[in-house]
Amino acid sequence: MKIGRNDPCPCGSGLKFKKCCLQKEKDVDTYLRDIYYKKHKIRIKNDQEIRGIRKAGQLVLKTLDLVEKEIRPGITTEYINTLVHDFTIQNNAVPAPLNYNGFPKSVCISVNEVICHGIPSERVLAEGDIVNVDVTSILDGYYADSSKTFLVGRVSEQAEKITQVALQSLKLGMDQVKSGATVGDIGWAIQSYAESRNCSVVREMVGHGVGIEFHEPPQIPHVGKRGEGIVLVPGMVFTIEPMINLGSRDLKILDDNWTAVTKDGSLSAQFEQTMVVTEEGYESLTPYPFEIRAS
Ligand code: MF3
Ligand code: CO
Ligand code: CO
Predict the structure, then answer these.
(1) Closest to 136 (Cα-Cα) out of 174, 94, 173
(2) Ligand 3: distance of its center to the CA of 6 in Å?
(3) 201-230 as b/e, with b when 16 or more CB fall inside 10 Å?
(4) Distances (CA, A) of 63 to 24, 147, 149, 266
(5) Which residues have beta carbons under 5 A from ligand 3 (an ion)?
(6) Alpha helices of 91-205 — where are they, by DSSP H?
(7) Cα(276)–Cα(36) distance, rounded to whole angstroms?
(8) What atom of ligand 1 comes closest to residue 96's alpha carbon?
(9) Atom number of ligand 1 nearest to Cα 258
(10) Which element (helix H / strand E) includes 51?
(11) Which atom of ligand 1 is least distant from the CA of 272?
């Protein structure tokens, strides 16, 4: 860990760490775990918990692969919901979205101007659509959360662009993750890249701690300033899931109280992975390559 025995104590007493809180704890790991819980309600995960989330993540990835093979013009988003639901249950897992705060389906499916939290329906996918499928599975009590935006057949240059920018935003955000970096570094990397491509970053929805529950502290905004916010430490597990719009960042929520759409009707795309902070960087618990395959 990063705090030395002779460094100032992180509790802010002004004493050396060894003369202050370190004395009260068995070791630095236990100390950090307690401080992060007391100060931020962040549950730093142990190795057993990380193994559980990794296993849930492998199932989420298999589910996304299954969906990817089925994406084509003519299918309904309800069909994808059934695929995800049945596959999850067959694998002794539970689809986390179903009944979560009243969400009526097993997966979020967000087409074109839908930013996130789209509800599967009889809507038929058409050539040229872009569709985000956001899968969260609970396996042996552990949650993993990941999404991809798929291209339906041949799409416009604009659709291709926003999807690429969203994917690269996730990658650049993840590149910041390592012990000692801050939550603000992640948002800064995403915001500066996305805005440099003349795209905008949604503020209302954020990445989040995950693993023991669906949404845990901390929040991970996709905008921010370098060096600001909570310091990342090994064993923190969270998502990064930037929602990037081609037009303005403003959104509205439809009458179903879930579907978030761009106010100006412009396209929006998103990619999400769950990761654990390590000393040197991160390990993705839902790892997929940063490339978009045509369907
Ligand atoms: N999977 C979404 C996320 O990335 C949350 C969906 S909540 C639901 O955080 F209720 F809409 F499923
Ligand atoms: Co999430
Ligand atoms: Co998600």
Answers:
(1) 94
(2) 41
(3) bbeebbbbbbbeebbbbbebbbbbeeeebb
(4) 46, 10, 14, 28
(5) 134, 145, 272
(6) 157-175, 183-196
(7) 15
(8) 12
(9) 11
(10) helix 47-70
(11) 4
Q: How much is the average pLDDT of 18-42? A: 86
One-letter amino acid for residue 272 of the chain: E
What six digits make up the tokens of 118?
């789209």
For the chain, what percent of residues have pLDDT higher than 90? 88
Q: Look up residue 117 and give its two tokens.
A: 């939290």
Say if residues 56 and 137 touch (Cβ distance below 8 Å).
yes
Question: What predicted TM-score, i.e. pTM, was given to this entire model?
Answer: 0.93
Q: How remote is the CA of residue 89 from the centroid of ligand 2, in Å? A: 20
Model confidence at 156: pLDDT above 90: yes
Burial of 90 (0-12, 13-18, 19+ CB in 10 A): exposed
For residue 86, what are the contacts with CB-CB under 8 A and spacing of at least 6?
none
Ligand 1 is surrounded, with C-beta below 6 A, by 97, 100-101, 103, 108, 117, 134, 136, 145, 241, 272
Pocket test for ligand 1, best of 116, 220, 237, 243 (most atoms within 8 A of CB): 116
Q: Residues 72, 78, 81, 83: what is their CA dihedral angle, to the nearest 10 degrees?
A: -60
